[in-house]
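User: Could you go from structure to sequence for me? I need the amino acid at each position, not a summary. Structure tokens:
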């Protein structure tokens, strides 16, 4: 466990609801242990509706409100939204700048984000925005955020270099760290239910969600690929 002053976690997700699906259980456990948990959402969430009458501006506002409510239910301290277009996230200097800036500001011990593999467990294709977010976040952690020669204009704005100590990747083909979320699984479903525009309000979702996190031995788990950064 890190010293209390560095018990800070940052979830970097492509879309509203991604970080919640991947890591809400562990985020709630950390928050209960006194950690400050922050969320950074890399796109504007302007996609993801079958409602033809929905405008993109309204959808962006709705999905941000849903993420704020989900963060409240998880006990997260804050959420920040970037303005990159949903579905078109590109790995460029601007995105790296945005993520590095946030890491230097929040100064997390642990960063949680998407795995970068395109095919996950031979069962689904990992969205391009997810892969870009994961790749840019890993690069932001190492080496960019820690080196003072990267984005020096941030230093002039008071954002000092920062070393992240632990990375956790969700939806990984190579999990090596599992968290028993049995005590918080109902609260995780409640947090996800805040994303009404995505999951609806129906009972089917709760059944689907419980099933998805249930291991063969009956425990509810979140699994991550964990990387400790020793230096
Ligand atoms: Zn997503």
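Assistant: Here is the amino acid at each position, in order:
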């Amino acid at each position: 466990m890190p010293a209390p002053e560095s018990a800070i976690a940052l979830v970097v997700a492509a879309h509203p609801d991604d970080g919640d699906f991947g890591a809400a259980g562990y985020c709630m456990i950390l928050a209960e242990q006194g950690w400050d948990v922050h969320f950074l959402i890399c796109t504007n969430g302007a996609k993801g509706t079958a409602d033809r009458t929905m405008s993109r501006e309204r959808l962006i506002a709705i999905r941000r409100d849903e993420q704020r409510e989900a963060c409240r239910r998880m006990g997260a301290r804050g959420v920040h939204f970037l303005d990159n277009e949903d579905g078109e996230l590109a790995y460029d200097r601007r995105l790296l700048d945005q993520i590095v800036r946030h890491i230097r500001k929040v100064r997390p011990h642990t960063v949680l984000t998407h795995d970068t593999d395109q095919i996950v467990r031979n069962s689904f294709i990992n969205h391009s925005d997810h892969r870009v977010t994961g790749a840019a976040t890993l690069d932001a952690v190492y080496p960019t955020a820690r080196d003072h020669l990267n984005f020096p204009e941030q230093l002039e704005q008071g954002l000092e270099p920062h070393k992240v100590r632990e990375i956790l990747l969700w939806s990984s083909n190579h999990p090596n760290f599992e968290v028993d979320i049995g005590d918080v699984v109902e609260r995780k479903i409640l947090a996800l239910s805040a994303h009404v525009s995505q999951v609806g309000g129906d009972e089917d979702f709760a059944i689907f969600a419980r099933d998805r996190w249930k291991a063969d031995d009956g425990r509810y788990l979140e699994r991550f690929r964990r990387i400790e950064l020793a230096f």
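One structural detail worth keeping in mind: Residues 146 and 161 are 5 Å apart (CA to CA).
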